């Protein structure tokens, strides 16, 4: 029943942009119709996924003339869980687009955007349900290209062009790795069907290569450090609802891929889980470090995606370690934490990007240090953004806490391991998570404080206003999901542990005991969260009773200084400075200072930025040097016919030699 | 007999951490004196069934006098003249050296049990403590600028060697005693000369000035 | 059950006495008589009866901040064994919720400080956020060491009778953890050597400067919340270093209360004999605390 629903959803969402094109003479109707199509498709898909979660695993297969390919789809629990955010966030994003990128005023760019937006949604859904490597790769390619075209929405801006081409290059390097990966997998399993690949022994020589390729190809899509370099630029350059889609769910296809491929193997070697755990810890710490150093709101949020992908990878690494050392508790907790964080990050990062879009919409700037005091002009946006900020910092009673708690608990299982067991290395996850939690809270205090609180720092804020309801409503829905999962993590735990059992091929009865324990703990978390809310309410009531009547108002106490101005406020950069200092070993900040000179200095300025260490410090200079070298080589040698002929001969000889040896 | 020994060894490592984080030469000298006193307790605590009672007492008393009293006094006297109250900014920050020190300790305590040592282990924490202390000394030597703290680094390195020497104390007690004490004296003399020269040439104890010397 | 409730009553009523004890110890060191032990309670009641002045810059965030901070600390109190054998609520991994609830309170306080638009309060907020982020790994490493030594994942067992035999087998490691948690307690509660609660120069303050603009009942909420937080960290330190002391629950409860007084006296002694560190050195102190608990964990894992 549910497989046709999902197939219909893939088709509807992919083609939804066509409506905007067909009705381009009546832009408003066209956009509404396209949005309605996409939302309907997404709802069908979500319904299908929910049915699949509750019942037996549905699958469908059609013949396809491509060699090795078949149009086969299969919706197991892992796919279904990923489908929920992958369809939900784009649906809300397209509704947001009605107000944010209206076809009536944006014209052709809006039509293009809707076509690719629908296409990328359908492709992501197809990636998650395809049960054939060729189909998977085809969907993956469509997804990457549509993503590139989405980033390029404002193609006239040079920074957008640069970001989009870096994205395209990174995506294709990743695709190359995936082609190699599935070629190897196909040879190992003898078929390109995923069903044939399940249960492969991890001892085979090729399996190490398969894992390395998966880590490169899927890690590039997910944005694990140091493969994250394309991400901040691309996510900052795209329109906000596209950033929400990319940061919220497009990255997660990388995680899906890693989980899917590692799920094929029985008893993965310890190096797999350890590598994933270490890469996750590095991504989480460095991601939040880079985020702290940013002053562009959307770049900052993009770096936080690197951090959250790191947390997810840590959970996945723990689950893999659990399978290696036959620890079902570790598998269930790590996997549940990772997958729940996938869902959670999609909701709160979507919410935050949509909020950032609302801020950009209202003020025309993304510079954090030019904003301030927006919570008076945009109280609803501020409140919703605050929900997202609290959730992403992992603070209770919101959903970020639930998933981070699961990952913590997974890592803590290592304390129960016998002495001198290598599993104990998993404990590294605990201080890493603690550090990341503290840094993320500091970073979002910086963002929320500098953007929404205090005084306005520049004229941008003067005409700020609340966005239209079409933009508020999607944020409201996402915030509600954050609160619901946070208050009632019990509701999602059984589905997660069932999915973990299916992924690791554990016997269900092992998992039921664990899940029951998890449910009991989660119920207590809900209890404490309810107490917290009650206590907040009670204290607020007491306070209101005490402060009856109007209270005197005064300017902020300036510690004796009589003429404070808004420019004297602590900026976001100064707030984060002492933490950014701690990352001096990996940051290469650029500062430009014009020092005031003379008795009546006219002009002085200070400007600093922290470029991405991987992209701007390593790749771009290296690529430039490579290009110059190639240029010189071409000028000297390759321009001559004789040399080209020599190259052809050498190539032939090498090939012949290759055949002779093998 | 295990618990006090554990405590002494843990405290030796703690002094290592403290040295990595401390920025004043004065407190550093005091910490090295404390470490010396702790080390002096080691031979007594490790002494087995009284085979070498004389040597044990000699080693302990010698270490106490030299490491905990004489050298710190000498260093205090040497630094009093120039009185550099505060170490210059280290080449690598305090937090980073502390981090590397902690990583070194973790590695030493996790993996030294796999080391193929020719001598039977006397206490499971002896070798890791020795390695951690020596590593701390090397870190201090590598990252600090002032000659005083470099001497401190050298002393800590020597302390690490002394702990390691405890493994051999049963087999060749005299050698251990003589070697350890002589080494230390040589070190102090050499470093004392360096400090004296620096002081005379630049009226400062910053070793980075040495690089400006030409032959 | 009565004991479980009694520990909450002692928590709610007794927490403000800890700052009183600290004040008395500092007075004794300075050769003064000092304020009576109940002075913090009197201050709280006096503040609660006053009106409040609000800055024109502030919004609802400023008004909600103290309430959220206090409520979060209260909720965290449900998870810590405060003298009785077990906390009111316990489950595997409750220490994560405990630490993050305190984090929520801090987040609310920091945002309320930023809401005033004052550069001084921004400065204090930045410092609070920085130091707590560095303190978090130290606290968690300490808790992991406890979990490892007791083979339990809930605070009630991690700090319960199981701890006693561990003191005999792995005493040095537990001592390191205790020192590390004590340092974290000093940092989280804005005491010397991290922050000087009685200084008068706004530029050097951390916690006090964040709450400059709060007045009346809001200030009472903040001070009460701070006292509760001190009591919670005191509970961690006391249960960790004394264990449960006695099998007999009532005796253990009395010992716990005595331990809390000792904890306050220890803080008073530290405040009287040490100077505040330079702000740049504070992260080093906290990283040192992390190094201690990490070393303890390595010792325990062997």
Q: What labels describe this entry?
A:
heterotrimer, A: about 650 residues, mainly alpha, two-stranded antiparallel ribbon, two-stranded parallel sheet, 7 strands, about 70% helix, about 5% strand, C: about 300 residues, 13 helices, globular
- Shape category of chain B: globular
What form of chain A results from the Cα inertia axes?
A: globular
Mean model confidence by pLDDT of chain A? 91
Gyration radius over CA of chain A = 26 Å
What is the percentage of strand-forming residues of chain A? under 5%
What is the mean predicted local confidence, pLDDT of chain B? Answer: 77
**Largest β sheet strand count, sense and barrel closure of chain A:** 2 strands, antiparallel
Element pattern of chain B in H and E: HHHHHHH
Uncertain stretches of 5 or more adjacent residues of chain A: none
- What is the rounded distance between the termini of chain B? 57 Å
Give a count of the beta strands of chain B, DSSP E runs of length 2 or more: 0
What does it look like?
The complex is a heterotrimer of chains A (662), B (215) and C (302). By secondary structure, chain A is mainly alpha-helical. Helices cover 71% and strands 4% of the residues of chain A. Chain A has a two-stranded antiparallel sheet. Chain A has a two-stranded parallel ribbon with strand order 3-4. The two termini of chain A are 51 Å apart. Chain B has helices at 2-21, 25-46, 53-82, 94-111, 126-143, 147-165, 173-202. In chain B, helix 1 packs antiparallel against helix 2, helix 2 runs parallel beside helix 6 (147-165) and helix 4 (94-111) runs antiparallel to helix 5. The longest helix of chain B is centred in the N-terminal third of the chain and has 30 residues, at 53-82. Chain B is globular and about 50 Å long. In chain C, 70% of the residues lie in helices and 1% in strands. In chain C, helix 2 crosses helix 12 and helix 8 (163-169) packs across helix 9 (171-188). The radius of gyration of chain C is 19 Å and the shape is globular. The longest helix of chain C is centred in the middle third of the chain and has 32 residues, at 119-150. Chain C is mostly helical and 302 residues long. The termini of chain C are far apart. Chains in contact: A-B, A-C, B-C.
């Amino acid at each position: 029943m549910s497989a046709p629903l999902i197939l219909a959803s893939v088709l509807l969402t992919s083609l939804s942009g066509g409506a905007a094109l067909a009705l381009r003479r009546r832009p408003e109707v066209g956009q509404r119709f396209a949005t309605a199509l996409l939302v309907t498709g997404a709802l069908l898909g979500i319904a299908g996924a929910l049915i699949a979660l509750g019942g037996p695993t549905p699958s469908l297969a059609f013949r396809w003339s491509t060699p090795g390919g078949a149009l086969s789809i299969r919706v197991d629990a892992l796919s279904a869980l990923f489908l929920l955010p992958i369809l939900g966030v784009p649906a809300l994003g397209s509704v947001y687009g009605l107000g944010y990128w209206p076809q009536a005023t944006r014209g052709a760019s809006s039509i293009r955007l809707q076509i690719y937006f629908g296409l990328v949604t359908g492709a992501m859904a197809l990636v998650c349900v395809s049960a054939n490597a060729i189909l998977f790769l085809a969907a993956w390619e469509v997804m990457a290209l549509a993503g590139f075209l989405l980033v390029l929405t404002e193609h006239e801006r040079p920074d957008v062009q640069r970001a989009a081409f870096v994205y395209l290059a990174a995506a294709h390097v990743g695709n190359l790795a995936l082609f190699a990966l599935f070629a190897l997998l196909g040879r190992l399993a003898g078929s390109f069907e995923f069903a044939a690949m399940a249960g492969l022994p991890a001892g085979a020589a090729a399996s190490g290569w398969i894992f390395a390729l998966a880590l490169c190809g899927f890690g590039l899509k997910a944005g694990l450090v140091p493969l994250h370099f394309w991400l901040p630029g691309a996510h900052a350059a795209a329109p906000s609802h596209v950033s929400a889609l990319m940061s919220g769910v497009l990255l997660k296809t990388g995680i899906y891929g890693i989980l899917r491929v590692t799920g094929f193997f029985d008893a993965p070697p310890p190096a797999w889980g350890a590598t994933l755990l270490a890469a996750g810890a590095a991504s989480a710490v460095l991601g939040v470090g880079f985020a702290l150093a940013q002053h562009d709101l959307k770049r900052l949020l993009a770096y936080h995606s690197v951090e959250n992908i790191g947390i997810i990878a840590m959970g996945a690494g723990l689950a893999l370690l659990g399978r290696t050392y036959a620890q079902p508790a570790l598998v269930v907790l790590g996997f549940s934490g990772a997958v729940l964080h996938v869902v959670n990050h999609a909701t709160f990062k979507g919410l935050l990007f949509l909020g950032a879009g609302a801020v950009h919409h209202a003020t025309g700037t993304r510079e954090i240090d030019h904003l301030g005091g927006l919570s008076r002009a945009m109280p609803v946006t501020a409140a919703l953004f605050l929900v997202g900020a609290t959730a992403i910092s992992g603070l209770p009673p919101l959903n970020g806490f639930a998933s981070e708690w699961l990952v913590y608990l997974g890592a803590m299982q290592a304390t129960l391991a016998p002495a001198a067991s290598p599993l104990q290395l998993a404990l590294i996850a605990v201080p890493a998570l603690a550090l990341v939690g503290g840094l993320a809270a500091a970073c979002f205090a910086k963002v929320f404080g500098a953007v929404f609180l205090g005084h306005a720092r520049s004229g941008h804020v003067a005409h700020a206003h609340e966005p239209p309801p079409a933009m508020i409503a999607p944020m409201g829905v996402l915030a509600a999901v954050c609160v619901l999962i946070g208050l009632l993590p019990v509701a999602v735990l059984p589905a997660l542990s069932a999915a973990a059992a299916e992924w690791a091929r554990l016997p269900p009865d092992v998992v039921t005991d664990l899940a029951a324990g998890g449910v009991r703990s989660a119920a207590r978390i809900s209890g404490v969260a309810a107490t917290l809310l009650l206590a907040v309410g009670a204290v607020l009531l007491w306070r209101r009773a005490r402060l009856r009547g109007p209270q005197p108002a005064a300017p902020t106490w300036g510690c004796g200084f009589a003429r404070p101005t808004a420019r004297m406020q602590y900026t976001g950069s100064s707030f984060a400075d002492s933490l950014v200092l701690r990352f001096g070993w990996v940051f290469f900040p650029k500062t430009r200072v014009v020092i005031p000179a003379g008795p009546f200095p006219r002009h002085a300025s200070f400007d600093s930025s922290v470029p991405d260490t991987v992209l701007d410090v390593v790749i771009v200079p290296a690529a430039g040097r490579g290009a110059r070298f190639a240029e010189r080589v071409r000028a000297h040698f390759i321009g001559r016919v004789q040399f080209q002929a020599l190259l052809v001969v050498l190539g032939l000889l090498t090939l012949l030699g290759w055949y002779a040896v093998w | 007999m295990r618990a006090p020994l554990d405590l002494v060894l843990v405290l030796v490592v703690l002094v290592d951490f403290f040295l990595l984080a401390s920025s004043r030469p004065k407190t550093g000298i005091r910490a090295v004196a404390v470490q010396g006193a702790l080390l002096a307790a080691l031979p007594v605590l490790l002494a087995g069934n009284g085979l070498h009672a004389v040597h044990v007492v000699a080693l302990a008393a010698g270490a106490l006098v030299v490491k905990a009293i004489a050298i710190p006094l000498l260093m205090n006297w040497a630094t009093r003249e120039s009185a550099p109250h505060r170490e210059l900014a280290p080449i690598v920050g305090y937090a980073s050296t502390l981090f590397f020190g902690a990583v070194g300790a973790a590695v030493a305590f996790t993996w030294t049990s796999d080391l193929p040592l020719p001598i039977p282990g006397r206490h499971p924490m002896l070798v890791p403590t020795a390695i951690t202390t020596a590593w701390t000394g090397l870190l201090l030597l590598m990252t600090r600028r002032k000659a005083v703290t470099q001497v401190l680094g050298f002393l800590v390195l020597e302390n690490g060697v002394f702990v390691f020497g405890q493994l051999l104390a049963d087999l060749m007690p005299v050698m251990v005693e003589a070697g350890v004490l002589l080494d230390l004296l040589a070190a102090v003399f050499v470093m004392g000369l360096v400090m004296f020269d620096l002081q005379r040439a630049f009226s400062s104890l910053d070793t980075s000035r040495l690089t400006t010397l030409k032959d | 059950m009565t004991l479980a409730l009694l520990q909450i009553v002692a928590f709610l009523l007794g927490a403000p006495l800890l700052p009183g004890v600290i004040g008395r110890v500092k007075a004794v060191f300075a050769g003064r008589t000092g304020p009576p032990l109940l002075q913090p309670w009197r201050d709280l009641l006096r503040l609660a009866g006053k009106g409040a002045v609000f800055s024109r810059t502030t919004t609802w965030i400023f008004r909600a901040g103290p309430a959220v901070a206090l409520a979060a600390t209260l909720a965290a109190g449900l998870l810590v064994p405060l003298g009785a054998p077990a906390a009111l609520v316990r489950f595997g991994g409750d220490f994560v919720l405990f630490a993050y609830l305190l984090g929520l309170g801090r987040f609310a306080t920091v945002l309320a400080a930023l809401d005033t638009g004052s550069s001084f309060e921004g400065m204090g907020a930045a410092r609070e956020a920085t130091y707590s982020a560095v303190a978090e790994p130290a606290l968690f490493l300490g808790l992991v060491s406890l979990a490892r030594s007791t083979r339990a994942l809930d605070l009630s067992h991690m700090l319960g009778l199981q701890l006693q035999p561990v003191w005999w087998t792995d005493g040095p490691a537990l001592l390191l953890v205790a020192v590390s948690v004590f340092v974290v307690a000093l940092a989280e509660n804005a005491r010397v050597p991290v922050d000087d609660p009685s200084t008068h120069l706004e530029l050097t303050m951390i916690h006090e400067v964040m709450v400059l603009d709060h007045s009346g009942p809001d200030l009472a909420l903040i001070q009460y919340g701070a006292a509760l937080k001190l009591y919670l960290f005191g509970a961690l330190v006391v249960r960790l270093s004394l264990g449960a002391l006695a099998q007999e629950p009532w005796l253990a409860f009395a010992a716990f209360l005595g331990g809390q007084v000792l904890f306050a006296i220890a803080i008073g002694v530290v405040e009287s004999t040490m100077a505040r560190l330079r702000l740049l050195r504070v992260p080093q102190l906290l990283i040192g605390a992390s190094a201690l608990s990490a070393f303890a964990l390595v010792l325990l894992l062997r």
